[in-house]
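Possible regression after last week's pipeline update?

I re-ran a chain I had predicted before the update to compare outputs. Posting the input and the new output here so someone can diff against the archived version. Not blocking, just want to make sure nothing changed silently.
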Amino acid sequence: MPLPIGLQIYSIREALAQDFYATLEKVAQMGYQGVEVFGSLPPTAQLKQRLDALGLKVAGRHARLDDLVGGLEPYLEEVQGLGAKYLVCAWSKASPTWEHNADQLVKLAEQTKSAGLKLLYHNHAHEIRESFAGKPALDYLLSRSSELGAELDIAWTYAGGADPVDYLKRYAGRAPLLHIKDVRKGADGWETVELGQGEVDLKAALDNSSGAEWLLVEQDHSPSPVQSAQRNLEWLKAAVS
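New output (post-update):
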């Protein structure tokens, strides 16, 4: 059975800011089966009711490391209230060191487990490029706690200089959520583009996604975010059919 496909709603943040629920209705009408949420959200019970009515499940909830450290409990309550299983550390930098970040993530992962949920770490390119203790920072962070899972972003893994398939194989069983994204190198660095328009071998990544529970579309920037979300879904459905 094909994996369910969701949308990381960061992709359509401008439209959400204009009309949150009307935009989610468009997401459901496109054919997405779920969403991954981020940022400030409407009241949890209200959001859950509206998502249920639209037939959208919540795959996970993103938050930055600093926000999680500053107050984990509200995020855990949101994830539970939305009927999800995964809280995702969406961003961190080595400040002051990757060891410090890992110490924090170990504690957060244990607290998340105590709430009956799972903490995942979402990578960007810098966790692949930067090293700590003789290994890429992402591998170091994941080595510190078996309770910390991964949300592998295949495009940023590629942009960091690694083969996404290697990481999918390495963390099979620890990466229930996958960010399906494409990038290409431009004059000003890496830019996210619609699926199939960039450099990432998406087919190879999808062929090695058997350990995942969700495929999550994300396009960080687009001239037409809502239209890109539709085209990305159409491309992905065709690719996995």
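Follow-up from reviewer: compared with the archived run. The longest strand covers residues 57-64. Marking as no regression found.
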